């Protein structure tokens, strides 16, 4: 008797378990039609009749599938769907979702009663509330592409997920320009924590939402205490775009919440479009607390990371795209993940709705409309070369520790130009590239150049001439 292929044996074992768990009618409707296709390592590929069928399985039976596969194959088991081809079209291939939508347990919060007149530390009345964690299951670690741009952040995040509130990374402060994956990483940590510790209460909120909630609470008698009590019940607080949390009152409320949670061993995660040292209009006591744990900068992805991200996203969408198209996009769009992903999805939409093949020509046409004509990119290296040419000094001199006036001014102007002309370039990155300086030195240089440009006519001419060399004005 011939031995059955491994993937058929594995799926048969899965079916025996699933049949004991779910209703017989649902089993016959949703699991009998599935055909096992292959088993490669820990990844099982199954064929389903349609994309609707796949979506229903994901929504109704994701938890059952995940636990069954882990039991039969192992804890690192993965599932891939192959949607049955229509006519002569090639089959579409989709990875299964990596996690369920996170849900928090119900918590009890002490609240004021409208007619109560309690003492300052007495909160009569108990209200049981469901706190929606507001985590998007798509933003999980499984859907992240790891590169030099985010490796440190992902490493810190996975460590936090294993022991939230018990690592040196508390708070974790993620910063960087738009579209570099700060929100994705912050939510991935929250999702991973919920999977490992489902009893913990996780909450994702933006800085602007927190500020609005505080202002609303201030407008109703005794509601501010309810507001504070609500946040002090959180085990893992994720605040996105913390730079929007401006205003003395809201910062004071957040300061008290921060202290309570941190002292109670709760995990705090923040994201910002700038480093803590660059945050404006923040109380110093709050800024100092942001620096207690670990600050991680997310930088622009390199070519290899951009290409891997495109391959991953096209796989998630079940679309086969040629390597020549993906390589073109990875080489053309360099700003951030969001712009790269948006362009890819536009190309897929155009191809789907207009029934056009995805070619390099189509990619070029769409890319030009989204990111514009390709221009000479201004880089730190280009700025350094231009400043050295203007002042007739060598690159080694500019990057040296020389305190000669001309060298210092040239170095400061180079730092100022990097900060002004390169988007998403942090102070720490500029300092590292220009002689190993720290962010405080770069901030001082930018302030000095800005002041001298306003007060010194000759210095203003230096800055103007170099700007024209870097950004020529069309005549």
Secondary-structure map:
Blueprint: H1 6-21, H2 24-30, E1 35-40, E2 43-48, H3 51-72, E3 78-83, E4 92-95, E5 106-110, E6 126-130, H4 151-162, E7 172-175, H5 182-196, E8 202-206, H6 207-218, H7 223-231, E9 236-240, H8 248-263, E10 267-272, H9 284-290, E11 294-297, H10 303-316, H11 323-332, H12 337-354, H13 360-371, H14 380-391, H15 395-398, H16 405-421, H17 427-433, H18 439-455, H19 457-470
Parallel strand pairs: 2-3, 7-10, 7-11, 8-9, 9-10
Antiparallel strand pairs: 1-2, 3-4, 5-6
Helix pairs in contact: 1-3, 4-5, 6-7, 6-8, 10-11, 10-12, 11-13, 12-13, 14-16, 14-19, 16-18, 17-18, 18-19
Characterise the protein shown here.
With 475 residues, the chain is of the alpha/beta class. It folds into 4 domains: 6-95, DnaA, N-terminal domain (GMP Synthetase, Chain A, domain 3, 2-Layer Sandwich), CATH 3.30.300; 106-297, Rossmann fold (3-Layer(aba) Sandwich), CATH 3.40.50; 303-371, Helicase, Ruva Protein, domain 3; 380-470, Orthogonal Bundle (Chromosomal Replication Initiator Protein Dnaa, Chain: A). The protein is 51% helix and 12% strand. It contains 19 helices and 11 strands. A hairpin with an 8-residue loop joins strand 3 (78-83) and strand 4.
Order of helices and strands: HHEEHEEEEHEHEHHEHEHEHHHHHHHHHH
Helical/strand content category: alpha/beta
For CATH, the homologous superfamily of the largest domain is named as P-loop containing nucleotide triphosphate hydrolases
The first-to-last residue Cα distance is: 83 Å
So how many helices? 19
């Amino acid at each position: 008797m011939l031995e059955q292929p491994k993937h058929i044996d594995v799926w048969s074992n899965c079916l025996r378990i699933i049949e004991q768990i779910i209703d017989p009618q649902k089993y016959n409707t949703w699991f009998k039609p599935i055909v096992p296709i292959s088993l490669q390592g820990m990844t099982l590929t199954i064929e389903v009749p349609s994309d609707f069928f796949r979506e229903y399985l994901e929504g109704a039976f994701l938890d059952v599938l995940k636990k069954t596969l882990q039991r039969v194959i192992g804890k690192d088991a993965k599932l891939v769907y192959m949607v049955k081809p229509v006519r002569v079209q090639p089959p579409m291939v989709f990875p299964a979702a990596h996690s369920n939508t996170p849900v928090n347990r119900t918590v009890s919060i002490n609240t004021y009663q409208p007619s109560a007149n309690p003492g300052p530390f007495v909160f009569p009345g108990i209200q049981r509330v469901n706190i929606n964690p507001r985590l998007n299951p798509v933003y999980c670690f499984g859907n992240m592409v790891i590169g030099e741009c985010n490796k440190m952040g992902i490493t810190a995040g996975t460590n936090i997920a294993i022991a939230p509130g018990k690592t040196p990374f508390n708070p974790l402060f993620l910063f960087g320009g738009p579209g570099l994956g700060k929100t994705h990483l912050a939510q991935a940590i929250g999702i991973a924590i919920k999977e490992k510790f489902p009893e913990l209460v996780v909450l994702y909120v933006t800085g602007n939402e927190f500020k609005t909630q505080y202002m609303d609470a201030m407008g109703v008698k005794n509601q501010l205490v309810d507001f504070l009590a609500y946040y002090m019940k959180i085990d893992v607080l994720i605040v996105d775009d913390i730079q929007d949390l401006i205003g003395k009152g809201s910062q004071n409320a957040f300061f008290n919440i921060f202290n309570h949670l941190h002292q109670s061993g709760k995990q705090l995660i923040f994201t910002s479009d700038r480093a803590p040292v660059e945050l404006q209009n923040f109380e110093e006591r709050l800024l100092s607390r942001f620096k207690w744990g670990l600050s991680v900068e997310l930088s622009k992805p390199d070519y290899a990371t951009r290409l891997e991200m495109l391959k991953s996203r096209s796989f998630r969408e079940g679309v086969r795209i040629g390597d020549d198209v993906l390589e073109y996009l990875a080489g053309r769009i360099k700003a951030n993940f969001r712009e790269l992903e948006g362009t890819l999805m536009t190309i897929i939409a155009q191809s789907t709705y207009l029934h056009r093949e995805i070619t390099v020509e189509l990619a070029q046409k769409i890319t030009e409309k989204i990111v514009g004509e390709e221009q000479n990119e201004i880089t730190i290296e280009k700025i350094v070369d231009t400043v050295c040419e203007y002042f007739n000094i060598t690159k080694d001199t500019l990057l040296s520790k020389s305190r000669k006036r001309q060298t210092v001014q040239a170095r400061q102007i180079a730092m100022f130009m990097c900060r002004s002309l390169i988007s998403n370039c942090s102070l720490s990155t500029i300092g590292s590239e220009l002689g190993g300086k720290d962010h405080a030195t770069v901030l001082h240089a930018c302030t000095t150049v800005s002041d001298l440009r306003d007060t010194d006519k000759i210095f203003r001419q230096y800055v103007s001439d170099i700007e024209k060399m870097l950004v020529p004005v069309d005549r």
